[in-house]
Amino acid sequence: MTLSQLGAFVFVARLGSVKAAARALGVSEPAVSQSLGQLRRHLGDPLLTRSGDRMVLTEGGRRLLGIASRMVALGAEAFDAVRPGRPARLHVVMDAGLAEYVAGPLLCLFTQRKPVDATSGVAATAEVPLLLSSRLADVALGAQAGGEGLVSRPVLRCRLIVVGAPDGRRDHWLVGPSGTDPASDTGRLLRLLRVPESQVRVYANQSAAWTAAAEGAGLAPATAHLVSSQLRRGTLVPVDTPATPLTSSWYATTLGPDARPSAAGTFLDFLTTPAATQTMRSPDDGIPRNRFRPPVHVSIWS
Fold first, then answer.
1. Among 295, 288, 301, which Cα is nearest to 100's?
2. Strand boundaries in the chain, DSSP class E
3. Are 91 and 121 in contact (CB under 8 A)?
4. Which regions of 224-282 does DSSP assign to beta strands (E)?
5. Same structural domain for residues 218 and 180?
6. 139, 152, 179, 269: least CB-packed within 10 angstroms?
């Protein structure tokens, strides 16, 4: 029995499917299925069975879930405990849009100030409580996430607008990966506007969605300050809708003060500084080349 097998079981049990677990862990679906199969054979119990479109726990799986969750969290704590003299670790997860535009400049600025080994990853809002409680992530940045033992703090107010080419189409909606997250600002806006799923096109990243909008392919939701350079150049223009501008906030979510690692608390304090606020508002400004150290992006898998 390994921590990887237990982690696969916990994530499938909590998220309801192998696909969702694989996405949260940053691995392939066959890797999760293989780990889950090995654990089933080792324990002699199916642990999870399919019911409709979800995986549900067997009686044995229900008895195992709490124990397995604690073991996965303890595994992460054990890894940190044997790193004396090394920089503290910090893993920050964000929605796809923030990871694309903000993660690099923000974590680079933070590690210039603190001797921390910082990495980043992408997570949907529904995955955040499990990632934090399992100690597979230390801080989540994006939409507000709730859950037992979690604390969410607003760190930046922003506005969501809709943009498009001056003469572009208005019958298609172009989104990045965060547009598939119902709890994201983009997901919330699409619901407010009652946009049918048949009119939504999902792109590999937010930049690709905005580029397609600038080429006239449709409308794209956008965080106003992240798209300001395109608005200044005139390649994109704001498009009025009944729901925009939509006021929102970016939140930093962690475990409670007594449970989170010290690096997470230090990062929370850093997010309140003027320098961090300026970086989140104007990530395009960059930093001097001689001070740049790119953050490492990792999958959450052991």
1. 295
2. 48-51, 54-57, 88-94, 116-122, 139-142, 150-164, 173-175, 200-202, 220-223, 237-238, 246-255, 296-297
3. yes
4. 237-238, 246-255
5. yes
6. 269
Whether 101 maps to a domain, the answer reads yes
Decide: pTM greater than 0.85: no
Task: Give me 223's structure tokens.
Answer: 């965080």
Model confidence over 241-281: pLDDT tens digits?
999 999 999 999 999 999 898 899 999 999 999 999 999 99
User: Based on the domain organization, do 212 and 276 belong to the same domain?
Assistant: no
188-243 pLDDT, tens digit each = 999 999 999 999 999 999 999 999 999 999 999 999 999 999 999 999 999 999 99
Range of the domain at 173: 157-248
Could you tell me if 173 and 223 lie in one domain? yes
Per-residue b/e over 151-172, b at no fewer than 16 CB within 10 Å? Answer: bbeebbebebbbbbbeebeeeb
For position 226, which CATH number holds? 3.40.190.290
Q: Which of 82, 106, 139 is the last residue of a domain?
A: 82
Q: Do 185 and 244 share a domain, yes or no? A: yes
Identify whether the C-beta of residue 213 lies closer than 8 Å to the C-beta of residue 159: no
Q: Report d(CA 44, CA 77) in Å as an integer.
A: 28
